[in-house]
Amino acid sequence: MRRKPRIAVWKFASCDGCQLSLLDLEDHLLEIADAVDIAYFLEASRATKPGPYDISLVEGSITTPHDRRRILQIRRQSRFLVTIGACATAGGIQALRNFRKVQEFVRLVYAHPEYIDTLEHSHPVSDFVPVDFELRGCPVNKYQVLELVSALLAGRRPRVPRYSLCQECKRRGLACVMVTRNEPCLGPIVQAGCGALCPAYHRPCFGCFGPAEGAQVAALAQELRRRGRSGPEVVRLLRTFNAWAPEFREESVRHEGA
Amino acid sequence: MNAYWLSRDRLDALLEALKRRGYRVIGPVMREGLPTLAPLERARDLPWGVEARAAPGRYEVREDAPKARAFDFVLTPQGWKRLLFPPERLLFRVRRTDLGYEVTTPDPEAEPPLALFGVRPCELRAIQIHDRVLSQGPFADEAYTARRRAAFIVVVQCTRSLETCFCASVGTGPEAREGFDLALTEVTDGFVVVSGSFKGADLLQEMDLPEATEAQQREAREAVARAARSQRRRLDPQGLRDLLYGNLESPLWQEIGERCIGCGNCTMVCPTCFCTTVEDGSDLSGREAWRIQRWDSCFSVEYAYIHGGSIRRSVASRYRQWLTHKLAGWQDQFGTLGCVGCGRCIVWCPVGIDLTEEVARFREQHAAVAAQEEQP
Ligand code: SF4
Ligand code: SF4
Ligand code: SF4
User: Fold this and answer.
1) How is chain B split among helix, strand and coil, in percent rounded to 5?
2) Domain ends where: A130, A154, A178?
3) Residue B18, burial from CB neighbour count under 10 angstroms (0-12, 13-18, 19+)
4) Which of B67, B136, B176, B259 is most deeply packed, by most CB within 10 A?
5) Omega before B174 within 30 of 0, i.e. cis
6) The model's pTM
7) Averaged over A134-159, what is the pLDDT?
8) Residue of B nearest to A176 (CA)
């Protein structure tokens, strides 16, 4: 028999929610432990094994020079490097600071700003190293994690949709909250994968899965304005967990002060 | 064709008769404040007194209409497509065994037959189009075919149209001519019923209904004609195919592309859109694999992915693909329009793009160009 593939799970600037989603795969944890060797996963166990690793799952954005060095090391030790969640993939909610001078915040927040050694921006992992695959979401959908691992083990491409959330929403049989309630839903420009969780509770999608492939962000923003949302409201809608994703970032800047 | 009279208090008898024949009856009921297709237990669960209002990108219901009417909502947000042709279905499952592997496929015949109660005439026409596409070609979809063959269809003709309906202009409603088992028309005190098949006639005979009076039949005919006359939207099928094929490079596509958000809602709600994709899955242990069929949309970038990349990167090209297939290519492939005039794509488009308006603009532009060319 082949040796079991070794998996490592890494944390950078993040809330640990994505790692918790991995642990939340309760029904499958034994199966996973059977199929792979969990070599490094501090959130689950202090026992660690040295690299190289077959699959590295990376949570969190890169915000310090130290983390920048660490992600380069991880990349060198990993065959597949997969970012999990909005922080690692797009910079996360903490990338809101990218829209201002970071030194202003440092001065305001810390009693001793001189101890703070931070990068100017909260970066997606892909700003520093090649990323083989991305799992979106804040947090990730645990079934997508399961699919990712199953696919990599079988040597096939993971089935992770790139199209809009609306398709998933309609397949689930939901009535659109934009059409029935005039809610400002980001579903049309957001990547599917969550199962249309928010619309199922009559809530507009707030975009935690980030931009869909070919997202028409400007056209949706124009429609939101037509439906009575102000410039600052559109900025707030686009600037949450994926504020620094290029498609959302560029459009949000256009509505600033408008 | 004999017309019978079904008073409101006999609706339950009709539902019972269907259930006795083994059908699982699906019809409109209120769910979370909206008329929705779901199992229909009793006639009192129908959306009595519910009126829907629709406009491009808007749908709302009022529940204060006279309680005596059950079908004034006209169209539910999603139609019957998901019942006969579900959004996702398992094609097969493969398991490793000691000797090799074992394949299992779901048996559509094992499902109870469906009675579709309250199909609108345009929706019936869409089902007939699906029959053509999914059952009558060289690659029939067996699950659809089996489900469809077993189904009993109760049409309710429209005595009210939504603002977005345009069936009258494409000849698909608001009356239904053939293809149903029973057709009902809602009038003041009840329903005028006709049968359209042996199955339907047999059921009516069992129910032993009185014949509808001349006055009841006239009221039904006039109510349907009034609904047709109330429609403001039109799609003129005349010359449509050549109009669209003749304007593939028109700048209007780019202009639409600036408004379209490429979400694909139109294709999901369209009762005739039938595109699917297949996806393979496997479990962690590598002992089991499966293949799933799932609704696809020509508005996804990946839909047009061929060797080396997607051939429709711009949303304008994706909208063009959708509209020209629906209204032109469909005629070459299947001998009909791919549009039955239900207007759902207009209502459920979050930005309210209206294909009837877009086609009208192509006509205007075409006429303007032609007029210019005629000038000496
Ligand atoms: S509720 Fe949101 S995700 Fe669902 S169809 Fe409407 S816009 Fe799309
Ligand atoms: S194209 Fe639009 S109006 Fe025509 S059948 Fe489809 S959803 Fe209905
Ligand atoms: S026409 Fe409307 S519903 Fe269809 S893809 Fe474009 S924006 Fe979405």
Assistant:
1) 40, 20, 40
2) A154
3) buried
4) B176
5) yes
6) 0.95
7) 94
8) B348
Cross-chain residue pair B284–A150, CB shorter than 8 Å: yes
Q: Residues A247, A194: one domain?
A: yes
Domain boundary among A101, A131, A154: A154
| Same-domain pairing of A68 and A121 | yes
Which is nearest to B342 in space by CA: B117, B155, B166, B178? B166
- Residues in contact with A59: Cβ distance below 8 Å, sequence separation at least 6, in sequence order: A9, A10, A11, A12, A14, A16, A18, A19, A83, A84, A85, A87, A88
Ranges in chain B, pLDDT < 50:
none
Interface of A with B (CB under 8 A): 28, 31-32, 34-35, 146-147, 149-151, 153-154, 156, 159, 162-164, 166-167, 170-173, 175-176, 178-180, 182, 185, 187-189, 202, 213-216, 218-220, 222-223
Percent with pLDDT over 90 in chain B: 91
In whole angstroms, give the CA distance from residue A30 to residue A45: 15
Asked if ipTM goes beyond 0.85, one says yes
Ligand nearest to the CA of A215: 3
Helix (H) or strand (E) holding A166: helix A165-171
The backbone region for A100, taken as left when phi is positive above 0, alpha when psi lies in -120 to 50, beta otherwise, is beta
Q: What pLDDT score was predicted for residue B61?
A: 96
Both A104 and A215 in a single domain? Answer: no
Percentage of residues of chain A with pLDDT beyond 70: 99
Distance CA(A11)–CA(A258), nearest Å, equals 38
What is the CB < 6 Å shell around ligand 2? Answer: B 269-272, 326, 339-345, 355
Residue of B261, B269, B297 lying closest to A188 (CB–CB):
B261
Rounded to 5 degrees, what are φ and ψ at A82? Answer: -120, 125
Does residue B274 have its Cβ closer than 6 Å to ligand 3?
no
Task: Tell me whether residue A160 is in a domain.
Answer: no
Is residue B57 in contact with ligand 3, taking CB distance under 6 Å?
no
Interval B306-325: pLDDT, tens: 998 999 999 999 999 999 99
Distance CA(B232)–CA(B121), nearest Å, equals 18
Atom 7 (ligand 2) nearest CA:
B270
Q: Are residues B350 and A179, on separate chains, in Cβ contact within 8 Å?
A: yes
User: For position B116, what pLDDT does the model report?
Assistant: 98
Tokens representing A162? 């790139």
Residue A241 C-alpha, separation from nearest chain B C-alpha, in angstroms:
21
- Picking from B50, B162, B263, B353 by the largest number of A CB atoms within 10 A of its own CB, the best residue to mutate is B263
Q: Is the predicted pLDDT of residue A146 greater than 70, yes or no?
A: yes
Instruction: Tell me how far the alpha carbon of residue A33 lies from the centroid of ligand 1, in angstroms.
Output: 37
Least CB-CB distance to A219: which of B261, B265, B286?
B261
pLDDT in tens, A91-107: 999 999 999 999 888 98
pLDDT of residue A1: 47
Average pLDDT of chain A to the nearest whole number: 94
Structure tokens at B360: 């009208």
